[in-house]
Amino acid sequence: MTEAVFTKPFTQQEAIPDAGIDRAVKIMKSGRLHRYNLADDEDSEASCLEMEYAKWQGADYCLACTSGGYAIQLALRVCGVKPGDRILANAYTLAPVPGAIHNVGAHPILVDIDENYHIDLQDLDAKAAESDAKFLLLSHMRGHIADMDRVVEICAAHGICLIEDCAHTMGAKWRGIRSGNFGKAAAFSTQTYKHMNSGEGGLLTTNDAEIAARAVISSGSYMLYGRHGAIPAEEIFQKVRLHSPNYSGRMDQMRAAMLRAQLPILEENLDRWNSRYDRLHTRLSAMDGVIIPKRKQDEFYVGSSIQFRADTLPKDQIPSFVDACGARGVELKWFGDDQPKAFTSRYDSWQFIDNLPVLPTTLRILEKTVDMRVPLTFTIKDCDLIADIIEDELARFTAA
């Protein structure tokens, strides 16, 4: 055993590229921060971002939003969700997902998960049949992508509109298709701990022209929708422009400028994340008492966080194990806590949902699940030290 301490913060992200900083400073000096407040010869950073991200994602249309959560709720609205509708959603996710459902006045029908943190496809099929729900909000939680071929089949069989929450899977793929390109619409996050960082921010993508037009109008474009980048033809806007409420969730110029500077290096960063994740996965998989899902060959993941189960520890010892790792500088989150902590919460803490179900697999899996960020400010050597500390403390508690 080693008594080494890890000293780097788990919340430290890399700096915004110089080009993004320089452009953001110019925008601040101009005073023209709003996406529609442009000089005659000036391009909109937000509109350019929308065009560039749509091309990178392989989607026809893209809208830059204030947050990933806003992008989710807007996607629900423009896909046709009405107050009182029932929406299927996997129970292993974060609070903004059921919060978005609540925001549009709909009711979540939570679906169990399987041993590998994916939505349980058998439970999804059964609840789709018994609930008559017409929407599935699928959260690719912590980057774990389910069998999307089967998900699409189930949705088609039950006439369900699929909306993807890709906050943790920007750049990830299933059978070579990017996450976000399987459903009617998708939402991405550019919050600080995601794959591109603008502090807060989000992106909505779709291949449906009418959904795209509704989203642009409802984001708060007023009648300036023509200034957007990746948008459908004018006749589509003429059809929807007077029937789409304004929810004011536009992205501003500064955040768009920072994101445009990060998009060209995103593919490189995905590889960098995975090199760190793969080292941690190899080390953790070799430890006694640790269960960590294997990644399917059909899945190209983005390892910006890692989850494992401390299976040999009883539930009442896990908080002490997490604290012991924390005392040595390794910051772990526990999904099994009965009370929500920071960004981490279990589905049965969402008391704003009526008639919360008992989902036995979700409860059993999350009871032992710990979660760790893997920022790009860490090196491979850092990952080895982190693994050493986790292994030491796990052995200490197992032997106690």
| Helix-strand pattern | HHEHEHEHEHEEEEEHHHHEEEHEHEH
The CATH class assignment of the largest domain is Alpha Beta
Helix fraction bin: 25-40%
Strand residue percentage: 5-15%
Could you please say which CATH topology of the largest domain applies here?
Answer: Aspartate Aminotransferase, domain 2
Principal-axes shape call: globular
Question: What's the CATH H-level superfamily name of the largest domain?
Answer: Type I PLP-dependent aspartate aminotransferase-like (Major domain)
Assign the structural class, choosing from mainly alpha, mainly beta, alpha/beta, alpha+beta, or little secondary structure.
alpha/beta
Put simply, the count of helices is 13
Summarize model confidence as the mean pLDDT: 95
Q: What would you note in describing this structure?
A:
The chain is α/β, with parallel strands linked by helices and about 400 residues long. The chain folds into two domains: about 20-265, 3-Layer(aba) Sandwich (Aspartate Aminotransferase, domain 2); about 265-400, Aspartate Aminotransferase, domain 1 (Alpha-Beta Complex), CATH 3.90.1150.10. It is about 40% helix and about 15% strand. It has helices spanning about 20-30, 45-55, 70-80, 95-105, 120-130, 150-160, 210-220, 235-240, 255-260, 265-285, 320-325, 360-365, 380-400; strands at about 60-65, 85-90, 105-110, 135-140, 160-165, 175, 175-180, 185-190, 200-205, 290, 300, 305-310, 335, 370-375. Helix 3 runs parallel beside helix 4 and helix 7 (about 210-220) packs across helix 8 (about 235-240). The two termini are about 15 Å apart.
